[in-house]
Amino acid sequence: MNAEIIAVGTELLLGQIANTNGAYLAQKLAGIGVNVYYQTVVGDNPKRLQTVFEGAQKRSDLVILIGGLGPTKDDLTKQVVAKALHVELATDTAALEKITAFQKQSGRLNTANNRLQALKLADAESLPNETGFAVGDYYRNPSGADVVLLPGPPSEFTIMVDRQLMPRLMEQGTENGVIFSKVMRFIGIGESELVTDLSDLIDQQTNPTIAPYAKVGEVTLRITATAESTAAAESRVDQMVAEVLKRDGKYCYGYGDDNSLAQVVVHQLIERHLSVTAAESLTAGEFQSTLGDVPGVSAVFPGGFVTYANEAKVSLLSIPQHIVDDYGVVSKETAVWMAQQAKAKLATDVAVSFTGVAGPDKLEDQPAGTVWIGIAYKDQPAEAYLFNFANGRAQIRRSSVLTGLNLIRQKLMTN
C-alpha cells in the first residue's frame, strides 16, 4: 500500500507551527509496512487543496489529510474532498450528540458552525474523536484511492491515529495478508552500533522488515511481518525478535510504543519491594519528575533532593565541604557522596545522583555534556560513572535521566 499525506493549514505553510503530525504519521505508517512516497503542506485555500488532493488520488492507494475539520471558515477539508469525490456530506449522530451535550453542559450556544464538526463523507466510516469534537473519516473509495480525514490538533490527532486509524489499517492488511508489528526498545547502545550489529538482518530483510528509529537517549526497532494469518505473522516477528535478542538483548529494556524506561524500572522496583530516591544537580528534578509520571510510583518513591547549588549539596545532603572544594562538583567523588547520602537520609534501597555540565558554558573547566551519575544499591558501595552527552542543554539532561534509569535497571538485572 502506498500512502500520501496532505497537511492542511496556512500556519503550517508559513512555518508558524511545525508539521509534527506529518512526521508522527509517517513513522506509524512505515512501522506497519505502508509506504509514504509524498507529503504535501497546503494552505487553507479550496482550489489549491483540491488540486493537491486530485493529484494524490491518481498516484496513491491511500490519501490521508490532516487538519481543516474544525468549526471556523477556513476549515474546509471535508467540503473540498466531498466535492472532488462527488459525494455528499452526512451528519455523524454520535458526534453531533457529543457536541450538543457539551454545549448544553457548558452553557454555550450550540451554533451552526460547531455542528459542522459532526459532518463526514457519506458512506465513510467515522473515526471517533476521543478528546475533541471533529469526527474523522475513513472513506473506502470504490473508484480511486481510499481517503482518511484526521483532525489537526495534536492532542486529538495522535489518539485518533493510534486508537482508530492504525488498528483499521492493521486489520485491513495488504495484498500479502495480515500485518503484525512489534516495537523493541533499547537503551545504552547507539543507533549506528545497533544497526551495525544487525546489518546482515537489515540488508537481507524481506519479510519481516526491520525499521530502526533513534530517539533522545534510546533506540527503537519496529519489526513488521505479513502472513496469511495474525498467528503466522506474529510467529515471523517473534523469530526475528529472538535473533535480535541473541545479539543485543542486554540493551533491550521493553516492548511497545508506550512502554517507557521509567515505567519498566518503576514496575520492577514495585515487584521487588525496593524503594528509590535521587539527588539531582544538573537535571534539576527532571529524574524525579519522570518517575512521578508513572502511576503507582508513590509505593517506591518517598521523595528526593534537588541540590543545584554547592551550598545545597552541603546543607541538604551533608556532603563534607572539602569534597566539593578538593574534587569539584563535576567529579566522581561528589556523585558518589550525593548518591550514598540521599540513600541514607531517606532510608531507601536505591539512590541515583546526577552532577555535571548541562551547558552551554564550561564548568570547572569541563565541557558541556560532561556528566557523572552515581548509584547506591542496597548494601553495596556507591559507584559513579562518567558520561559525555551532546546536542544541547535539554537533550543532555534527558540523556542523563534515561541513563540513570538504565543504571537502576542494570542493577536490578544483576542482583
From TrEMBL:
It comes from the Bacteria. InterPro entries: CinA (IPR050101), CinA-like_C (IPR036653), CinA_C (IPR008136), CinA_KH (IPR041424), Competence-induced_CinA (IPR008135), MoaB/Mog-like_dom_sf (IPR036425), MoaB/Mog_dom (IPR001453). Pfam families: CinA, CinA_KH, MoCF_biosynth. Residues 4-172 form the MoaB/Mog domain. NCBIfam families: cinA_nterm, PncC_domain, PRK00549.1. Belongs to the CinA family. This is Putative competence-damage inducible protein. The gene is cinA.
